[in-house]
Design goal:
GO terms for molecular function: hydrolase activity. The protein has 137 residues and is an alpha/beta fold. The chain is built from six helices and three strands. Helix 2 links the parallel strand 1 and strand 2.
Length: 137
């Protein structure tokens, strides 16, 4: 079942496998978390003193802060990244979320005009000409 506790257990199991089976050292480890996955990533990073780095892609501050504009952490909140990030001792790269509306507006501005694109001529006649003249082998 995908509970907060189980996601922490999953990332711990992956970490232990990397250490034991593949001999990966903490100094070689770059952790990555996307959205809700930033929760287990920040949790593990806050417990590793020597990891190489952390990449947080569209991270959440906490479960509660995704839903409501609260300014404090409640005991029942989940994935309390905002409280744990201070304990991370390595470099952190945050890739912010780009909203679809923002991207759409940038694409609209990049269009040169609203005129429909002109139809293009077929190149079939060029290929036929080259074949007839023996220019294409």
């Amino acid at each position: 079942m995908p509970t907060e506790c189980n996601t922490y257990a999953d990332i711990d199991a992956a970490y232990k496998c990397l250490k034991k089976e593949y001999g990966v050292k903490d100094e070689q480890l770059i952790l990555y978390g996307l959205s809700v996955g930033s929760g287990p990533t920040v949790d593990l990073a806050s417990r590793l003193p020597n990891s190489r780095g952390v990449v947080l892609h569209s991270p959440i501050l906490s479960g509660m802060r995704v839903l409501y504009p609260v300014k404090r952490t409640y005991w029942f909140d989940i994935f309390k990244n905002i409280d744990k990030i201070g304990a991370v001792n390595c470099q952190v790269l945050v890739i912010p979320e780009v909203s679809r509306n923002c991207l759409d507006s940038r694409l609209e501005k990049s269009k040169k005009s609203n005129k429909p694109e002109k139809s293009r001529m077929s190149t079939d006649h060029v290929d036929r000409f080259r074949r007839n003249k023996g220019l294409v082998w």
